[in-house]
Specification:
mainly beta, about 0% helix
Length: about 725
């Protein structure tokens, strides 16, 4: 299911994303963990959006694309299925889908990263769309976060913060959602439950949750003759344990499991000129179904030890992510298939196995000198098996014939030390500086066999050292009013290229980097009725890693190389106003100007071209209302509208930028709180907007262009009971 629906509120902290209609917390006072210590969001000298779990559920957020419209600077190109997103922040993108390079935005669950750090596991395509039922918040950190979070956070960071076991309180929740999407083949439904149970009061507690979601398709596949072809389901659960071993020592661990299956992708067949639907706004064409399956298992363990003057924290995790993708490549490879009226199926099986550990010492916030020092280690094994399979007209494999099979396995190791220190000259003014030195290596090989194969590409980068740093200052005009300035750098490891006997391509690309200059002001004013954050930034992206599609002889060669630099300038705003005790108003706005500094002949980019996926303007407005009609009973209502300017999927200089039109989305809800029961009726995409949020195959028009539409109007009824 591919969606792009608007949250009704998004600002600097998840209390600020949750108006009085959702939470009783004072905006700005909510604690966030952006700097790996507990701080009020209003005290963090960086640009943050944190959206609480209750708000994610209330607005029926199912995947990351649902956040795009109202998170400043965020853009996501979706491939048509769950867990297939290319994430961009502040305009940094080289094309609609850089799946042959590593991610520009890192994804974390609590203290540890998930997903591949490199192109070997297609880390810029296969991401985790974590279901929000047992989530405390999603934090989106904009700008390079490499000092504390390392590789791949050169554009920013997506951080899922999960709810921790409570040692003292037994509580549970259970709920279900039923919905209908316009044109779908039935009702969607999703039961869920979570429970927290102290085993030994104040000493040992467990927390467990589970969910299941079934979504009927709403796209008809004209080629296969299947109606509502993109049906999907997802399910999973989490178990967490917390043990207060002594007054000073806490031990914690957990396991998270999530699996998503889609029978076909949510795409629409469109014309190359104008991207108009060929068969209709909810119809696609392929000779074969395009199924997507993704499974993620994440094991974590850690400890916190209170040393009085500081806290020693150690955490470790092992994550396994398996993604299966089938595609119809009949049109592109028809000339090579010996069968009459034959078809070609492309199958890809991607595996990522990643062990990560971090140990850090974090000083007390009461000291004049605050510091964080730590050590980080990652060992990642990633690769994929691909098969371009020739089928006959009855979809039976052609005997004794191999079109192309590929096999790759790579190892990525990263060792880093980092430190950050803040000196408080007074209660109002302080300066911070931080640095990180990383040494990484990549080694492995890729090989291919068959009619179009026959190449082997061993690769070894040796050891690559990268140093990054940051500095910032902040001044509190008063405890609720902050000005800050920040400089930070980030990097992304280089990427290997798959072998192709018909192509002369480099074995690997070099790392690229960003320099980010930022100034912001955030605060609570007018007797704390108004909260706001205003940020301006200037980013230089150097030695860009770029996807290249180049014709060499009879072959189209796709690879990653370095070239040129780009600039991104922007202003981001978010804010809210408690107009009455019952009514909260909110708004966000982003202006962004991201462009090439140099000509990029291999990628078709020309100096001055706008970076792909970068919209000039993006804004949202929302209203949330809650009124208590009697003790224990309240009525709820709200509405939101968001706008995103048109953007291109490729550089203008290529001659085929495939521009997407503007996106205008409206949502609304009504509901009631009846004691422990909450009921909410939500309408997403109220006016049936027909814009797009992603593409398939735009670099090969002979495949047939397929665009990923915004999910049609969807009505859901959600019930949740707390006990």
């Amino acid at each position: 299911m591919a969606t792009s629906t608007a949250l009704s509120f998004a600002t600097v902290a998840h209390a600020q994303t949750q108006p009085a209609a959702v939470a009783d917390d004072v905006p700005g006072d909510i604690v966030v963990t952006a700097q790996k210590r507990d701080e009020r969001s209003i005290d963090v000298p960086a640009s943050i959006t944190s959206i609480g779990g209750a708000k994610l559920e209330a607005m029926q957020v199912k995947q990351l694309t649902d956040l795009v419209s109202t998170v400043p600077g965020l853009s996501i190109s979706n491939y048509g299925g769950p867990g297939m997103n290319s994430i961009q922040l502040r305009g940094l993108s080289g094309s609609f889908l850089d799946d042959f390079a590593g991610p520009l935005v890192a994804t974390y669950i609590d203290d540890l990263p998930v997903g591949s750090s490199t192109a070997a596991g297609r880390g810029n395509l296969f991401t985790l769309d974590l279901q929000p039922y047992d989530m405390d918040a999603v934090e989106i950190l904009r700008g390079p976060q490499g000092t504390l979070y390392g590789a791949n956070s050169m554009g920013g960071l997506i951080k899922y913060t999960l709810k921790k076991p409570d040692l003292n309180k037994f509580e549970g929740r259970a709920g279900a959602t039923v919905g209908y999407t316009n044109g779908a083949g039935g009702l969607s439904w999703s039961p869920r439950a979570a429970i927290n149970a102290p085993i030994v009061d104040g000493v040992l507690a467990v927390r467990a949750s589970a969910f299941y979601s079934k979504t009927p398709g709403y796209i008809d596949n004209v080629g296969t003759g299947v109606k509502n072809a993109n049906s999907s389901k997802s399910y999973g659960g989490r178990f967490a344990l917390l043990w207060q071993a002594t007054d000073r020592l806490k031990l914690h661990g957990g396991v998270l499991y999530q699996k998503s299956d889609a029978d076909d992708v949510a795409t629409v067949l469109v014309t190359a000129d104008g991207l108009h639907p060929v068969y209709g706004p909810q119809k696609t064409y392929s000779d074969l179904p395009t199924a997507i399956n993704q499974k993620t298992v994440d094991y974590t363990a850690g400890a916190d030890y209170d040393l009085d003057f500081a806290t020693l924290t150690t955490s470790a995790g092992w994550v396994a992510m398996d993604t299966l993708l089938n595609q119809d490549l009949t049109e592109a490879y028809a000339a090579y298939n010996p069968a009459e009226n034959g078809k070609t199926r492309f199958g890809l099986a991607s595996t990522v196995r990643k062990f990560t550990s971090e140990t850090r010492l974090t000083s007390s916030a009461k000291a004049r000198l605050e510091y964080t020092v730590g050590f980080y280690y990652t060992n990642e094994r990633a690769g994929e098996d691909t098969n371009f399979q020739a089928l006959d007209a009855n979809l039976v494999p052609v005997p004794d014939f191999t079109l192309l099979q590929g096999h790759s396995r790579y190892k990525y190791k990263e060792v880093a030390g980092f430190a950050n220190a803040t000196y408080k000259f007074s209660d109002k003014f302080d300066l911070s500086a931080g640095g990180r030195y990383t040494n990484y290596s990549q080694v492995g090989a890729a090989s291919s066999t068959g009619l179009l194969g026959g190449a082997t590409n061993p690769a070894d980068t040796g050891h690559v050292g990268v140093g990054i740093w940051s500095v910032n200052g902040r001044y509190h005009f008063n405890p609720d009013f902050l000005f800050y300035g920040r400089f930070a750098t980030g990097y992304r490891p280089g990427a290997f290229n798959s072998p192709n006997s018909s192509c002369d391509i480099p074995a690997a690309s070099d790392p690229d980097r960003t320099d980010n200059y930022e100034a912001g002001i955030k605060g609570l004013i007018l007797d704390r009725k108004v909260n706001f954050e205003l940020t301006a930034y200037h980013i230089k992206w150097k030695n860009m890693q770029l996807n290249v599609s180049q014709v060499q002889g009879d072959s189209t060669c796709i690879f990653v190389t370095n070239g040129g630099s780009a600039t991104s300038n922007g202003v981001e705003f978010s804010g809210g106003y408690q107009a009455t005790p019952d009514l909260r108003l909110s708004a966000t706005a982003t202006y962004q100007d991201a462009y090439l500094d140099d000509d990029l002949p291999l990628s078709g980019g020309i100096k001055g071209d706008t970076l792909p996926l970068s919209s000039k303007w993006q804004y949202s407005v929302a209203a949330d209302w809650k009124r208590e009609v009697k003790e224990g009973t309240s009525l709820l209502a709200g509405a939101s509208f968001s706008h995103k300017d048109p953007y291109v999927n490729f550089f203008e200089g290529t001659g085929h930028p495939y521009p997407f039109k503007s996106m205008n989305l409206a949502n609304a809800y009504v509901g009631a709180e009846l004691g422990s029961l909450t009921a909410r009726l939500t309408v997403q995409n109220l006016f049936e907007n027909r814009s797009y949020v992603g593409m398939q195959y735009p670099f090969r028009p002979d495949f047939g262009l397929r665009a990923v539409p915004v999910q049609p109007r969807t009505v859901t009824l959600s019930l949740d009971y707390k006990f």
